[in-house]
Design a protein that fits this description.
The protein has 188 residues and is α/β, with parallel strands linked by helices. The chain contains six helices and eight strands. A hairpin with a 6-residue loop joins β5 and β6.
């Protein structure tokens, strides 16, 4: 395996993934979130924060033997970042750690979506043209965003939470809505 850049260095904007994989090459680096405009649009942060927050990434390529005896090129992309998202419970900003890894099987044309393709842990990736590495990183970070970002414990009481409701615990935190409904139903 050869490394094409020092950690943190910016990659060439366009990369031929097939050549990269055949050479067993590796790249890694970091990028400010402000350089990823599609991702930045879904974040809750000021421009200054987007300049300071970094996403780390690494790309490793290789070739392996297929069952039919032919060669198959692949690249593995790892991404990680602390992303400022909006908590869906309290609506306040929350920094969520996102770490993801995907192995891309390089193909010349879209494969048929049969059961084996759907169940595969790898993704088929069209590699006819050179790719923009940072766009690849940005796409993977977007795919890795949590569906429902939330604090482990919200920093302030939830708006509208009334500790006097039946089912509230000793600290005044409301129980689940179903526990509250059950308590109201029993009181009738």
């Amino acid at each position: 395996m050869s490394s094409d850049s020092a950690p943190g260095a910016q990659p060439a904007r366009r990369l031929n993934l097939r050549e990269f994989a055949r050479g067993g090459r590796a790249l890694d680096g970091s990028v400010a979130l402000e350089a990823l405009p599609r991702l930045a649009a879904s974040l809750q942060a000021q421009p200054r924060e987007l300049r300071e927050l970094q996403a780390q990434w690494s790309l490793q390529g290789g070739v392996r033997r297929r069952a039919d005896g032919g060669d198959e090129e692949w690249v593995r992309l790892r991404v990680g970042a602390r992303l400022p998202l909006g908590c869906q419970r309290c609506l306040q900003p929350v920094l969520q750690q996102v770490d993801d890894e995907v192995t891309l099987r390089l193909v010349d044309e879209e494969p048929r979506l049969d059961a084996a393709e759907i169940e595969s842990d790898e993704e088929a990736y069209l590699a006819r043209e050179p790719v923009d590495v940072l766009q690849l990183v940005e796409e993977q970070l977007i795919l890795a965003l949590p569906l429902v970002p939330m604090h482990q414990e919200c920093p302030q009481p939830l708006p509208g939470a009334d500790p006097r409701l039946p089912g509230a615990d000793a600290a005044g935190s409301p129980a689940s809505p179903f526990a509250v409904l059950g308590a109201l139903r029993k009181s009738k």
